[in-house]
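Notes to self after the call with IL:
- keep both proteins in one doc
- input above output, always
- annotate only the second one for now

Protein 1:
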Amino acid sequence: MDLAQVSLLIQSFDRNEERRKEIGRVRETLKDFQRRYPFASNPQTIDTLTADQIYKKGEDQTFFYWVERKLRVLGHITVYANWFENARANSEIFKGLLRDSLKEGLSLSQRIDPHWDSIGGFGGDRTIAKKIISLYFPESVIPIFKTKDAERFLRNLGVDFEKKALSKSGTPYEVLSVGQKFELLNGLLSDSKRNNETLKNWDNARFMEFLYENFPSPDIPELSRREVKPFHPLGLLFEPTTEQEVVYLFALLHRRLGFPYVVRIGAGSSLNYLPVISLNTATTRWAAISLSVGKIIFRLKEPLRSLQSFL
């Protein structure tokens, strides 16, 4: 994508004030987390961290509940519950990793490359470690934890990260460690953000959202690339004209659209507007679905545009 197209996307995304406010609210939640678990500013408190405080099923104030759930807006990670159980079972090892990675004066690679793989589920691309580090250093870390995602975003921004690796360190990109790649990619994304007059004023989490929304993974199928067939024998004679008809229609279809649970139904800004928010459990991505009387419009990150495409 050329820079002119990227610039238009930035201008369009910058108009979304609601998302800006949401990130601002979550930033306040982050301050609560840092007060509850002040491990970077007060490392001695790591010593008092108990196994139950690290993770306990059903508890909503544990360290990892905050990391994964309460602060999801500041970077999503895909985990299995037993990974957190592994940290709980190896609490002294985990506390040692916190001490080593949150010390003052370390580079990003030095924070990510310690032996996180000594706990089951914490190795590989080290997404859990990256999320933890981002919560203690939010001003310097753009919360993009998958290496492949960061690489894709830089390609779309016109940045040759492989060439940059050679020029910066003299080392071929492919032989860099996970932490070294994270440090390089994060730095290049930060440079792109800092060098743009609009982006430089954005929160790092807002920049992350912009990248994921506008440069999705090619693994996500595009609706336009496949044949669309009707999937429900609705037998409609007329378009819905009342709020009840719209809700009924959505009740028939929401599971087939990939949103098996209706999480919240609330009143909108007028009597003719009813927002319904559902959770796609297959990808754990949130999607807002706006229903208006007589017409259904889907405002999703997935490639769905209107109900008419399915009928």
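Protein 2 (the one to annotate):
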Amino acid sequence: MSQSLEATVIDAQHLHLNKPILIPAGSTVLVTLASPEEAERQSWLPLSVQGLAAAYGDDEPDYPAKLVKEPNPDYQA
């Protein structure tokens, strides 16, 4: 089972989880430290995925070539 969550460092030996986890006491967990920049980048990823899904989703209409005002000369179909 793999799950990612955020925690606040209390001191060198304690973390405060931002939301509870349902695992038995005494379980071993793996903690991966992320720099503040990486944490911010990770927080933007779901929004990026959502935007791309909306722009390139299955319900996106298929535009005919006659609507293209300036064709890309490097495009290869």
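Annotation: Residues 2 and 30 are 10 Å apart (CA to CA). The chain has one helix and two strands.
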